[in-house]
Amino acid sequence: MTPVQPDSIFSSIPAIRFEGVESDNPFSFRYYDPSRIVAGKTMAEHFRFACAYWHSFNGNGSDPFGGPTHIFPWDRYTDPLDRARAKMDAAFDFMTRLGLGYYCFHDVDVVDYTDDVADNERRLQAMVAYAKQKQVETGIMLLWGTANLFSHRRYMNGAATNPDFKVLAHGAAQVKAALDATIELGGAGYVFWGGREGYMSLLNTNMSLEKENLARFLHTAKDYGRRNGFTGTFFIEPKPGEPSKHQYDFDVETVVGFLRQYDLLGDFKINIEVNHATLAGHTFTHELQAAADAGVLGSVDANRGDYQNGWDTDQFPNNLNELTEAMLIFLEAGGLQGGGVNFDAKIRRNSTDPADLFYAHIGGMDAFARALITADKILQKSEYKKFRADRYASYEGGAGKDFRNGKLTLEDLRDLAISGGEPEVKSGRQEWLENIINRYL
Ligand code: XLS
Ligand code: NI
Ligand code: NI
To answer: Which of 151, 190, 273 is the best mutation target for the ligand 1 pocket, counting ligand atoms within 8 Å of the beta carbon and taking the most?
Structure first.
């Protein structure tokens, strides 16, 4: 372990440790105990918590109405690599103090990009060498890398789905460099979030060609990664819109259909973001279940939306009921395939103390840990599983089983309707189930 940075903006913050529920120390975990075993795995193994470089070290609190409120000391450097290194020092110092095992980045979060492809590659490579050394010193690992194909002006009509092939090629150049970086850093995964892979108006859009190009782009990137030694997991991160009006990777089921149609299902899993689920009109649990059922529950971008605002507010998670229901699915699915829990969340514009970044992550990690413990208890001790199984018992034997096995015709079903008589009315007991969550919390 490297010593923490003495001159860092975080130097007043103590190392965060598990102290238990009796602790009043705001710089401690009350539930997240990395080595505690829950359902056969340590909490650290279940979650693989990660910090999102873009929100924590680039997000400066600015909004459409005002400039930065989070003033970062590394911004005083004019040389982009000096700035990038100072920022990375702070990032690793933050993660070390927090005891966070993983991080995630976009290419342009790590170092500023220009319009020059070869220069950008050199910059990223220089930072990869720096990050590699930091990883060795601290034991912190890369959960996933990605390329930002949505901020530059050239991507205003998409990258892989751009009507102009020249723009697509620029997107590919960035993906190549970001994949190279991910491979070099031993990243567990690589994410594709298609922020502008969609459209604003059908009047100027050839939807079928754009989707075909997106699929070809993903195949090409995947083949490159595999040829060059990437053994990790590729993830697609669905979101229904924002910044596009219509985004092609709308939600989990849409993405699963797309992956199946274009023969990508074997190579890609899904990174589910809570706030994207709610923007799609779903719950987080709906998306988790849909992914688990399709065998593609890969990773999670943890955050929460705002009940009054209809956009990606990316707040830190704190809703224990929602998370406990999520952890029921998570545990029953056997956890995440290849990914972890990345806090794709940002502190508020007026959260201006370095300590706020710690409070935010501590709160999120504790909320997940508490939800996991509660969900495990519900699965072990309550009637939750039995009630759900009993509800479908009629398909486990007799005619119900024959139906599932395709042995019954429509005429057979008609005869069974007569011989079986009027079905008994059975309660779904939703309120009783909801009470179970609160009882074990
Ligand atoms: C934006 C997305 C983005 C991805 C990575 O809404 O959540 O941050 O996670 O490109
Ligand atoms: Ni995300
Ligand atoms: Ni998001």
So the answer is: 273
pLDDT in tens, 301-317: 999 999 999 899 999 99
Give the H/E segment covering residue 52: strand 49-52
**Does residue 235 sit within a domain?**
yes
For residues 77 and 155, state if they share a domain: yes
Same domain, 222 and 94: yes
Q: 254 and 349, same structural domain?
A: yes
Q: Is residue 345 part of a domain?
A: yes
Q: pLDDT tens, 18-73?
A: 999 999 999 999 999 999 999 999 999 999 999 999 999 999 999 999 999 999 99
Report DSSP letters for 185-245, one per residue. TT-SEEEE--TTSEES-GGG--HHHHHHHHHHHHHHHHHHHHHTT--SEEEE---S-SSSS
Q: Reply yes or no on whether the pLDDT at 6 is more than 70.
A: no
Residues whose CB is under 5 A from ligand 2 (ion)? 273, 301, 344
Question: Is 361 noted as a catalytic residue in this protein?
Answer: no
Per the structure, the complete domain to which residue 432 belongs is given by 385-440
Give pLDDT tens digits for 399-434: 999 999 999 999 999 999 999 999 999 999 999 999
Determine the distance separating the centroid of ligand 2 and the alpha carbon of 184, expressed in angstroms: 22
Ligand nearest to the backbone CA of 56 = 1
Rounded-to-integer distance, Cα 216 and Cα 200, Å:
22
